[in-house]
Design a protein that fits this description.
It is built from 20 helices and 16 strands. It has a six-stranded parallel β-sheet, with helices on both faces. It has a four-stranded antiparallel β-sheet with strand order 5-4-6-8. The protein has a three-stranded antiparallel β-sheet with strand order 9-11-10. α1 links the parallel β1 and β2. The structure holds 5'-O-[(L-methionyl)-sulphamoyl]adenosine. The site of 5'-O-[(L-methionyl)-sulphamoyl]adenosine has 20 residues, from α1, α8 and β12.
Length: about 475
Amino acid sequence: MSKKYLTTAIPYVNGTPHLGHAIDYLLADVYSRYESALGNEVKFQTGTDEHGNKIFEKAKSANLPVEEYTKTNSDLFRDFIKKLGVSPTDFIRTTDAAHKHRVQLIWQRLEQHIYAKDYEGWYCNGCENFITEKEYADNNGVCPDHQTPYIKLSEKNYYLKISDFKPKIKAAIESDELKILPEFRKHEVLKLLADSPDVSISRPKKNLSWGIEVPGDPSQVIYVWLDALSNYITILGYPETEHSPEFTDFWPAAVQFVGKDILRFHAIIWPAILLALNLPLPRVLHSHGHVLLNGAKMSKSLGNTIDPLEVLEKYGLPAFRYYFLRHIDTFADSDFTWEKYDAAYNNELANDLGNLVQRLATLCSKNSVAPVSAPSFPEVVIENPDYSALMEKLEFSNAFDYVWEKVKSVNKKIDDEKPWSLIKTDPAAGVASLSSLVASLLEAAVLLSPFLPETSEKIIKIFTAEKIVAPEPLFPKALKA
Ligand code: MSP
């Protein structure tokens, strides 16, 4: 048994959760369930990123004290995670007193790599990011993700000397000591790293009041990204726990899940912070694509979000997890449309799987077929090396496709073997065919468990119960063909 630490990005609380936010959680959840089912101990962090100007401005325009505004939205994220069937072991808010204190301690440990300088240049409030002249020119002065003009800043800031760590970060990425997935993003990151200037890690308090104060300089506030990235270790009690198992058992993280838009912060600033603290780098940075709506990234700033609760309510949780884990590619951008969602539910979940379970359970019940015991997850994983290879490569939508092929092959087998007619001419062969079909379906159900835990459990229960009985339809809201 080994210990695995998985993390997700922590969303800004400048609005309520949207569909795009579900991706980090679902991917980490699949991996967490996979590792746990193999017998490993998983620590799974999530949380909310609560400081910075854009959140402060939102609270102001909502006419709410910022503490109340952030708490309300943070609670909505916490509820959302639960509604997705995702069970993290830890949830952090960057406004937690312990986190704030630890970020200040981290700052003090970084001090020999920090210097002060006047900054004059561009900033994107949406990204909470400093923009180089080149990026400004390439994007014609407008952030492509947020569609808002960059703003001009002229202020004193503290800088972290990325230059002290560039060669080490480059070597770690090139050698896969810090593995970037998907592979093609590695080259993008290396290019960004080569061009990366030192990064500003503070803002004057007069321009950013809602944040953690820089130790020893009350006129400055710690830049939100330094504050937010630190959550991955402050949640483990760092720095107080740096020599205790609470920290050393879990750091470095096995996998950090982030969206492609924030990979640059995780692949440049975050490794620089860790190296400055003399800490090992995470093993894998997994960057997923975006959920698109009509070809554009779904985002609060663009105002083109869909309420995930409406999507959840339409057909329930398994349908939601099915669509977002199989039809939203793990690495590439993918569209959400209601048409595609309906089709996936009706033609695949309800038809391929729901009808199969119904049909097979009815046949078994009519012919008194004895229940079959379900294999264990580790057993099934050994018997399906292609599945485990995809899971180990963290290619979850491909692994889900693999499981679905199994489901389809059981459908094909039932149509080919026609046990309902076989049983009339050769009852023993008919029952044997049904038992073997049940065994194949159970194998698929076990492989399905990291993706659709609820459905997997239901199927296993039906076919391993004392007596197999035809169940209520698994996906009752399906449209009749
Ligand atoms: N607060 C930062 C993250 C700090 S992590 C130390 C942030 N927040 S966010 O709310 O903008 O994004 C949170 C996560 O949701 C990121 O991984 C981001 O990529 C993901 N997504 C936001 N919109 C998305 C889509 N439309 N599609 C898929 N994921 C997207 O960045």
